[in-house]
Every structure is written in C-alpha cells, then in structure tokens.
Amino acid sequence: LAEHAEGRPDLRHLALQGRGPAASIFKIVTAAALVEMAGFDRQTEICTHGGLRGLTLYNLRDNPKLDTRCDTLTGAMGASRNVAFARWADRNLAPDDLQAMADRFLFNRRLPFLWGVGRSEARIPRASKLEFARSAAGFTGTTLSPLHAALITSTIAHDGVMMAPRLVDRAVSPEGEVLYTAEHAMLAQVLSPEAAQEVAAAMVAT
Q: Which residue of 54, 66, 133, 164 pairs with 49 in a disulfide if CB–CB is 3.0 to 4.6 A?
C-alpha cells in the first residue's frame, strides 16, 4: 500500500485502483488455465519465433526455419515470452476457458477490503483469434489493481486458495492482552492444490 505519484501527489490509494494494465501478470492466469484445463506441467515445451514487443498472426504459425527459441512453461514465465503464451492459448484453450479462469481469480468482481477496491477487469476477446492470443499474453482485455496482483500471487503460494486481504493480523496491549484478532476468510478455491503447486514451481524457478 506504499505509494508515490510523481506528477500527482494528491492521488491516494493507488494500490486499490483497478485501472492499470494487467500486462504480463496475466500470464499467471493463463499458466493456471493451461495447467488445470490443458494438462500442462512446468516442463511443457514450445519452440517459437518473434513476439518480443508485439504479436501478429504470423507469430502464431509454425515455422520450422524460424522457430528456434524453445522454452518450457517455466522458462517462458521467467522470460515473459509473449509468443509462447499466445501460441499455447491459441492451441489449447478456448476464450471461454480463459475467461472462466480469470473469473475464478475474481476478475470482474469487487474484492472485500477495509477500503473500496476498484474492480480488475478481464474481457477475453472471442471474435478474433489474434486478439484472444494477445489477451493470453497480457497485451489486451485486462486491467488489474496492485492489491489484486498480490492476491493472485498469494493464491498460487497458498495451494490455490484465495484469502481475503487484511491489514492487521492481531493487536496486543503492552501488558500482553490480545485486543484484536483478524478473522481469516477464504474468498475462493481458485485452483486445485496440484495445479497451484505446478504453477508455483515455475514461478519459484523464475
């Protein structure tokens, strides 16, 4: 929740605003969908070309002469390989699959918190093969609050369970009396423990 806006020092609660692009953080959601819905593991491999700063339909097509960059899921996450995630999604997921996974991570919903949190949005394109692939790589269709980003990563670390965010665990008086203890509330079982552990292993390697 620490914040600083160089040009707008009057801005407050930047971490609670859901207007920023989800960008490559959304690759965690795509990876979760690939593991849970398409049977991937951290060693699933693909060979690709291009896609460093943009994606075209050309990047989605196999090209044996150019497809010389080979990555596992772990390596693709570590290098934030746009074209790898785009191709994987294009070939192994439907837009409804990725939308369902985003919804399971509580995109498009209000998160409970001490203060209001702006909704992170995920509108996965259905009409365009390229735009769907771009969304899977984090290029388009999604916004994210920093608080929600923290919840996404903690969900992976917590065996697929998303817990309600809280600021204070407990308060104790100088005499040792417990004055307050937070309730630990589960928001959702987003992933199976096995899928979460596979994604977590890739993230730890990253």
A: 66
149 three-class SS:
helix
Question: Following DSSP, what letter does each residue of 69-82 receive, concatenated?
Answer: EEEEHHHHHHTT-H
Q: Which region holds residue 152: left if phi is over 0, alpha if psi is between -120 and 50, else beta?
A: alpha
In a 10 Å sphere around its CB, with 0-12 CB exposed, 13-18 middle and 19+ buried, how is residue 186 labelled? exposed
Helix (H, G, I), strand (E, B) or coil at 121: coil
Q: Report the SS3 class of residue 106.
A: coil
Mean pLDDT of 92-119: 96
Buried b / exposed e across 62-99, counting CB within 10 Å, b at 16+? eeeeebebebbbbbbbeebbbbbbbbbbbebbebebbb
Look over the chain and give the mean of its residue pLDDT values, rounded to a whole number. Answer: 94
- Give the Cα separation of 27 and 86 in Å (integer): 10
**Three-state DSSP class for residue 101:** helix
Give the 3-state secondary structure percentages of the chain, helix then strand then coil, rounded to 5.
40, 15, 45
Q: How far apart are CA 150 and CA 145, in angstroms?
A: 9
Question: Quick check: 86 and 60 in contact, CB under 8 A?
Answer: yes
- pTM strictly above 0.85: yes
* pLDDT class of 157 with cuts at 50, 70, 90: very high
Residue 181 reports pLDDT greater than 90:
yes
Q: Under 8 Å CB-to-CB from 63, ≥6 apart: which residues?
A: 49
